[in-house]
Automatic annotation (TrEMBL):
Role of this protein: Catalyzes the hydroxylation of L-kynurenine (L-Kyn) to form 3-hydroxy-L-kynurenine (L-3OHKyn). Required for synthesis of quinolinic acid.
EC number(s) on file: 1.14.13.9
Pathway listed: Cofactor biosynthesis; NAD(+) biosynthesis; quinolinate from L-kynurenine: step 1/3
Coiled-coil portions: none
GO cellular component: mitochondrial outer membrane
Lineage, top ranks: Eukaryota, Metazoa, Ecdysozoa, Arthropoda, Hexapoda
Reaction(s) catalysed by this chain's protein: L-kynurenine + NADPH + O2 + H(+) = 3-hydroxy-L-kynurenine + NADP(+) + H2O
Gene3D superfamilies in UniProt: FAD/NAD(P)-binding domain
Naturally occurring in which organism (per UniProt): Rhynchophorus ferrugineus (Red palm weevil)
Highest rank taxon of the organism: Eukaryota
GO terms of biological process kind: 'de novo' NAD+ biosynthetic process from L-tryptophan; anthranilate metabolic process; kynurenine metabolic process; L-tryptophan catabolic process; quinolinate biosynthetic process
Protein name as it appears in the record: Kynurenine 3-monooxygenase
Top-tier EC class: oxidoreductase
Residues in FAD-binding domain copies: 13-334
Keyword annotations from UniProtKB, A to Z: FAD, Flavoprotein, Membrane, Mitochondrion, Monooxygenase, NADP, Oxidoreductase, Pyridine nucleotide biosynthesis, Transmembrane, Transmembrane helix
């Protein structure tokens, strides 16, 4: 049993996973007055020099910022982040075009280092009274009947069994906690791997200044793409997203270099041929998956959040943001239920499910947009119309990307809003066609009636002439 800080505690909580979402959750629960113990299977990243895990940097947007603000960390995180005002598209010939995210209100998303963010959160978590952060502790099993969990302490090679008032699984896309919940009756679950994987490359600091600052760079190539996000030290993290088949078809240095000089010519000198070959052949591309669950809670104390509850492909830059929003949302429900944990976790499932399912789907859709649609005329026209309408009616017309990345509108409402906008634009287009058609008919009518009128006149004048001739 977790020891309770009796003087101050509202109750005990356990958080499994000390990644981005787990660490933030510890802070939020501790700030509410819970006695929190966090168990992370890996060693403390603040004490190891090695950068590990997925994506070195991430795009932080409004939802994530709002959650960080709750515990007073927004400013600190943004200090170490780089604003990105839009996408910079690189075409095959090497020329570029900028597409601002928000030309109207000039809002940015932020590139932030995963390790930096995790460190800031762990440092903050540690400072709360009553929190204990335990590393090298791996969740082994969950006993949902007896409300206990068993963890393996890697250092002592011992198992410990613990319980608490609230047990949260923030243990990522391959969550052990979710594995146990999945086996329960009526828990539906789906997991989808896409055919594309990703590989991280890098543009070193020395050549980083050749890249246009404050943008998320994209090399859209129809069915695949490459992106680059800036790092604080001037370097860029480049991520190549491509079908596994394509990754595996490039087996020699020559093939790889020819492929890059044909497809991403302007990136070759920036990444460097030698570095590209080294990184490409010493790393395997990683898979991307999307996970949906029918519920996030079990019994009266188990809850999963973040990637454990809704892993998504990274193309909307919302995985971490949605996970952070989970923490802020849980905080709000605990407020509403006056810390009645059973009610709070039930409400969490009921009211959060649709939203996270929507963002999982949108993230999949955005891959097509980033690879292909961004370069099409229809996309550019729509973006232009959206921006004009946003400027004219900021309270009524919020474009989809805008509502997802720069607002706190529920994800479900973002997509409904988009459907409503599509409906309006479709009908306006239809009305314009009808109007044009009517104008055309009117012009033809005008022309025809003039012609008939002239014909009548000439007929009448012929008749008159003939009559007057006859009279003569
Ligand atoms: P994780 O970060 O996976 O953390 C889980 C933690 O739990 C880990 O520390 C792990 O060691 C620990 N753990 C796992 N199992 C156990 C166990 N059995 N016992 C104890 N501990 C355990 N999101 C964005 O918002 N913006 C982006 O730009 C963005 N870009 C991305 C790019 C890529 C290539 C990828 C793959 C993802 C990206 N994401 C992005 C998504 C984001 O990385 C995740 O949504 C986010 O990391 C989820 O955080 P989490 O804490 O839920 O899970």
């Amino acid at each position: 049993t977790i020891k309770e800080n009796k003087e101050t505690s509202k109750g005990t909580a356990v958080v499994i996973g000390g990644g981005l979402v787990g660490a933030l959750c510890v802070c939020i629960l501790a700030s509410r007055g819970y006695t929190v113990t966090m168990y992370e299977k890996r060693s403390d990243l603040r004490k190891s020099a090695f950068t590990r895990g997925r994506s070195i940097n991430l795009a932080l947007s409004h939802r994530g910022r709002k959650a960080l603000k709750l515990i007073g960390l927004e400013t600190k995180v943004l200090e170490g982040a780089i604003p990105m005002k839009g996408r910079l598209l690189h075409c095959k010939r090497g020329n570029t075009a900028a597409v601002l995210y928000d030309p109207v209100n000039k809002q940015n998303i932020y590139s932030v280092g995963r390790n930096y963010l995790n460190q800031v959160l762990l440092d903050a978590a540690e400072k709360y009274e009553g929190t204990t952060l335990l590393f090298s502790h791996k969740l082994q099993s969950v006993n949902l009947m007896e409300n206990t969990i068993t963890l393996w302490n890697e250092k002592t090679n011992e198992n410990i069994t613990v319980t608490a008032d609230l047990i949260i699984g923030a243990d990522g896309a391959f969550s052990c906690m979710r594995n146990y919940m999945q086996k329960q009756l009526l828990f539906s679950y789906s997991q989808k791997y896409i055919e594309h994987g990703y590989l991280e490359l890098s543009i070193p600091r020395e050549r980083g200044d050749k890249m246009e600052k404050n943008h998320l760079h994209i090399w859209p190539r129809g069915t695949f793409m490459m992106i680059a996000l800036p790092n604080q030290d001037g370097s860029w993290t480049v991520t190549l997203f491509m079908p596994f088949e394509k990754f595996h078809s490039l087996t020699t240095q020559a093939e790889l270099l020819t492929f890059f000089s044909d497809i991403f010519p302007d990136s070759l000198d920036l990444i460097g041929k030698k570095e590209l070959v080294e990184t490409y052949f010493s790393n395997e591309p990683s898979p991307l998956l999307s996970v949906k669950c029918s519920q996030f809670h079990m019994g009266d104390k188990f809850l999963i959040i973040g990637d454990a509850a809704h892993a998504m492909v990274p193309f909307y830059g919302q995985g971490m943001n949605a996970g952070f929003e989970d923490c802020a949302y849980l905080n709000k429900i605990l407020d509403q239920t006056k810390d009645n944990i059973k009610d709070a976790i039930e409400i969490f499932t009921k009211t959060r499910k649709d939203d996270v399912h929507v963002i999982c789907d949108l993230a999949l859709y955005n891959y097509t947009e980033m690879c292909d649609l961004v370069t099409t005329r229809t996309f550019k026209i729509r973006k232009c119309i959206d921006n004009i309408l946003l400027k004219l009616m900021p309270d009524t017309w919020m474009p989809l990307y805008h509502s997802v990345s720069f607002s706190h509108m529920r994800y479900r409402d973002c997509i409904e809003n988009r459907h409503w906008q599509d409906w309006i634009l479709k009908n306006v287009k239809f009305a314009c066609f009808i109007l044009l058609f009517m104008i055309l008919i009117a012009i033809i009518w005008e022309y025809l009636s003039d012609a008939i009128f002239e014909q009548n006149i000439s007929y009448e004048s012929t008749v008159i002439k003939q009559c007057s001739l006859r009279n003569q």
